[in-house]
Amino acid sequence: MLEHHPRRRYRRVAPPLPARAMDDLRFIRQTMERSSSFTAVSGRGQVLVGATALLTTAIAHKQSTQNWLLIWITEAAVACAIALASIYRKAHSKGLPLTSGPGRKFAVSFLPPAFAGLILTIVLTKAGLTQFLPGTWLLLYGAGVVTGGAFSVAIVPVMGSCFMLAGAVAFVAPATWGDIFMVAGFGGLHILFGILIARKHGG
Predict the structure, then answer these.
(1) pLDDT by residue (tens digit) across 129-139?
(2) 98, 87 in Cβ contact below 8 A?
(3) Rounded CA gap, 175 and 182, in Å?
(4) Angle at 77 between CA 73 and CA 82, to 5 degrees
(5) Largest Cα–Cα separation, the chain
(6) Residue 185: count of CB within 10 angstroms of its CB
(7) pTM, two decimal places
(8) How many angstroms separate the CA atoms of 190 and 198, rounded?
(9) CA proximity to 156, closest of 14, 2, 41
(10) What does the DSSP assignment read for 105-153?
(11) Quick one: DSSP state of residue 203?
């Protein structure tokens, strides 16, 4: 009687990859790691934004409510222009993508809180509740930085959390402290974290 021997299975061993292929794979892996977070947030740009906020506070202080609002809206437009230009410059110098991957996610996550801030600015102004604007702006700007910063380096959402904390405190502080929170938040926090980002993340 013949014995039945189970069929032996042999695992095929892949031949070693040529050095060129290994270099290509290493390059692809490094590129994917670089693109996994949006690193084009410019620390120098943040410092410049903070400096314009300091100047704006000095100009807007003791102005009428209408002029105060117009001055700060103008500052917001200037700050956005500075931030976008500095991000583009840093991304271009380092070869980082802006319209795909983490860059797109950063923008998409930041825009909803920014849009909510715009709507609430209109609502609060029409209702004559402009004393709540500093807290609203700081809170929602911080929320945008936190959500967008989830796709950036770790220090960015930390900065956003500090803005949110400043906004929350501004709601319970006396209304006359509004300019103090504006200069401490949009001025001081931008400059502080801008310096940290510039030192640790290449400008």
Answers:
(1) 999 999 999 99
(2) yes
(3) 12
(4) 140
(5) 108
(6) 27
(7) 0.77
(8) 12
(9) 41
(10) HHHHHHHHHHHHHHHHHHHHHHTT-GGGHHHHHHHHHHHHHHHHHTTB-
(11) -
